[in-house]
Amino acid sequence: MIPDAFQFPLLRDHAQPLHRQLYLRIREAILSGQLPPGARLPATRVLAADLGVSRGTVDQAYGQLLAEGFLLSRAAAGTLVHPGLESRLVGPRAGHACAANPLQAGTAPTEPAPPRPFQLGLPALDAFPRKLWARLAGHRARSLSLSGLNYPDPAGYRPLREAIVRHLALFRGIHCDVGQVFITSGFQGALGLAIRTLLRPGDPVWMEDPGYFRASGALRLAGARLMPAPVDRNGLCVDEAIRRAPDARMAYCTPSHHAPLGVALSLPRRLALLDWAERRQAWIVEDDYDGEFRYDGPPLPALRSLDRAGRVLYVGSFSKTLFPGLRLGYLVAPASEAARFAEACDLLSPAPSILDQATAADFLGQGHFARHIKRMRALYAGRRAALAAALQAECGGRLRLDGQPVGLQLAAWLPDGDDDRAVAARLSARGLAGQALSSFCLDGGHPPALLLGFANVPAEQAPALARRLREALDAR
Ligand SMILES: Cc1ncc(COP(=O)(O)O)c(C=O)c1O
To answer: What is the CATH number of the domain that holds 430?
Structure first.
């Protein structure tokens, strides 16, 4: 029987070759303490058969790890994790950067690793049209003109901004001028820009609770006073947030699909939120990170489409619709603030590489983007349904699934009283990357649940992964 540390899918269509993926997995298992010093590795023949790869693939991965001193080969005993590695220097650490970030748990520090089963926050990496992207990027790189080497517009490449304006009008119900659109380094870059432009240290900010930990982390780092705003089946509880902190300067919100629960902000609450912002002259950051992915109907219009008073800063990201390694996103500023944003952009966060922006502009402008999203919607609907069915069959008595058919992850509720962080730790020990809902909470007080990313779980792998998840639930 192969140990859990080796039970993970290798992706054939991944940018990294199979031997490299295997090398990274084993290295990560050693560094995290999952494979302690002295642990025996499976024979290459056995592991190759189990993973469905050639023996040469396993040989190459082992060979690299031997060369780097992670492994030791002993004729009789086979291959071991080097017993000379001090367990003080490997193994889980308090405050380790990877552990602090639930979306990247398990990522190797030097090079992104392939996705782990149930990893959150990722689109289907195996389904991205890499060849098409490479062709567009290659064309852009080859046709780079002399003036293309100059400093570009800090607000972003104009054709990309124009393509975004068209996309938002067609698909998100937002009508804006190209001068209001700023290209950023993903959502994170857009939030940084909004904070620098509009917030002062000490300003109170509503933060959804549970909510996206990278948003709360960035706001905290900027010196904002976080005001936890509870979330229920209708999204952010606007009345309660007003009761707690009526004079907040800003509200962070995920109206289309709450992160991480997936619920939509109801229309009465949307109107109440906009009304509060208008009366108090407060700002709303609308994080529309995966609003395109709704599987039982067309996407819901963005909150920004209802904003008549110009209080919403709309943020979009290409991390889910294209791929997160691109680090591209955008912010649509209210018309009244466009000049302030342009200045902050110029001085503090100019748009990322012109080549990536130009490639994205071609991808959008030539119609590939709309086609890709349409294809991904169908793929995700299928992957979500397959995982939900497999979980129901395997863990029906232990987990309850009740989320909306949206987004890229499922919320699986555990029985009351369960410790979701302990369950997530048992998953992690088996190479599975689901996350505890409580790791997204500020004030706590939410029933226990696991969040399971399904975008990278091919339908045919769902039953086996659900079985491994059940084994993790059963283990004590
Ligand atoms: C709630 C939320 N917002 C935004 C993002 C995208 O962030 P970025 O564009 O910085 O990759 C994510 C990614 O997982 C997310 O979960």
So the answer is: 3.90.1150.10
